[in-house]
Structure formats: structure tokens, C-alpha cells
Amino acid sequence: MPPLLAVRQLRVHYRGRRWLPWQPPSLLRAVDDLNFNLRRGETLGVVGESGSGKSTLARALAGLEPVTAGSARFEGRELKGLDKRGWKELRRDIQMVFQDPLASLNPKFKVGRCIGEPLKILHPELPADERRRRVLEMLEQVGLSADDAERYPREFSGGQCQRIAIARALIVRPKLLICDEVVSALDVSVQAQIVNLLRDLQRRYQLAILFISHDLGVVRHISDRVLVMYFGKLMEQAERDALFATPRHPYTRALLAAIPGHDAFAAFRARDGELPSPYAPPVGCLFVSRCPMADERCTRQPPHYRRYPDGAVALCHYASEFGRDGIVDFEAAALARS
After folding, report:
1. What is the pTM of this model?
2. How far is it, in rounded angstroms, from Cα 170 to Cα 135?
3. Percent of the chain residues past pLDDT 70, beyond the cut
């Protein structure tokens, strides 16, 4: 069965300032040559540090940022270059939930109107009483009551506002839900409630979810597969259990080493090197200045993607040295390469 969403060589670049009249403008590579598939009913977690391009990817797939090059096909339909009319049709199938629910809800509208507005715009054929019925039904499905439809967003907590934002996104019964850091501003207990709510709604509606977060613990709980990004590049992609048990890329292991309690990866903590410039990336590997395994080859030669029998992909010269038997010995690995 073909994937619901197929992304190939996706690029989102921005032109920077021209410092001198004869120089070409600088180019910021927010997303660079990204490839992945998303199947129906699947959750793909996207992780990485701040500035890795996660939110730009989400906005590009939702039609909120222009795609510079490459392809993103939803049910075989190309999203790149789609006009406003085309995107209005796809809004029924692709919806997005943002990090700050209060900023995405109109404070002048009551909750019932906030949730029902997409139905009014995308399904104008529905009568008012049917829209009202669906709004009340959706409120109950996200754990709120019918009486809440008459209240304003400011009267709710952050977690409740996020439930309202999820209800508004799902009211049109989309096929793809893009969640951009939807639990990052919430307390831990509320995070668990929202994640469990998303899982329940996914089973009910057979949703495909692109779940973007910097919290690997949350991603591990909700995702089927995980995609790791660093400065716009895909560093590693693998099934959830495989990635957390035996990550192949040193950047992935550095992310896991930063999680409290993951002492097994302590030797893989990232070095305090200089971050790469998004305007002028290094000739070799993007992670070379912070990688504990980097050598001269990593500095001079860009790595190529390696695909593994279990379907995993890693962008590293020495990813194959990260075997299933645990942590590699840095000195032994260096001697083997010399």
C-alpha cells in the first residue's frame, strides 16, 4: 500500500541579507534534502535540538511555508506549489495543532465557535444544527463537557486549551494531524493526558500523526518510528524500539545521553564544539564539531546515507560501528580505522 505522505529531497531555504552589492545573498538551509514516508494510522516522531528545522518542516507540510525544492506528496497529490484553492480542499485532510493553544484560539470567540469554525469554512453544506451537534460530540471526545462550548478560551487551563485545539483540528476528520510541540509547555501529568488522548483519537479515526517534539521520553511513548534531525538534515530514522535500544548515529546517542537515567550512553555526550552555521554548513559532516568519534575524514568528506536490513537509515561514515552489542570503544574504533 502506498504511503499517505511521501517526502522526497524536501528543501526549505530562506534568503538572508546581502552584505556587499557584488556578493550573492546568503542562504539559510532550514530543511535540507529530507526523505521519509508516513503511513495511514502511523505516528512518526520528529526529534532534535532547537533550530534543527522541526517546526519549519511542520509548517511546510501544512502549507504555511513555501517549499523551495523537492517533493511532498499526500495521497499522490503534490503539495509543492499548491495554490490557495488547492490547500483549502486539503485542509479537510491535513490539520495542525500548535505549541501555544491560547495563541491559536481567537479570544473573542466562545469555545463552541472556535471548534466549529473549520466546519463552517470547509463544510459549508452542513446545517447549523449538525455543526452544533458535531462540536458538542467532539468536546466530549476530548474530555470536556457540552457546557464548555459557552465559555471563552481564557477560562481554561493550558491543558484544557490544548484539548480544545485538538478538537478544532479533528472536527473536520482529517487523515493527517501535524502536532508541533503540543505538550512542551504543559506539566508532566498533563503531558501524559494529552498524549494518551492523541493515541485514543488516533485509534478511533485511523489518524496518521507527525509528532514533533524535543522530549524523547514523550516521543518514545507515542511514536511508531522516529526521525532525528540536526540543522535541517536527517541524521537517523528507525523503528522506535530499535532507535532507543541501539541508536546508530552519534548524534542520536548524544540526545539519549542527555536524558536522566540513560547512563548507558554517558560516553556519547556531545562535545562542547562550535555549532555549524545554517548559512555556511561545513564541508564534511554537520555534527563534526561536537561528535566524540569525529576524525579527519568527517571534516573533509560529507557522509552518505546508509540503509540497514531493519529499515533504519543513518547519515554517518562510521554508523556501522554502532552494533547491537552496546557501546563502541572509541579508542579501539579509532585504531581500527587508522
Report:
1. 0.89
2. 10
3. 90
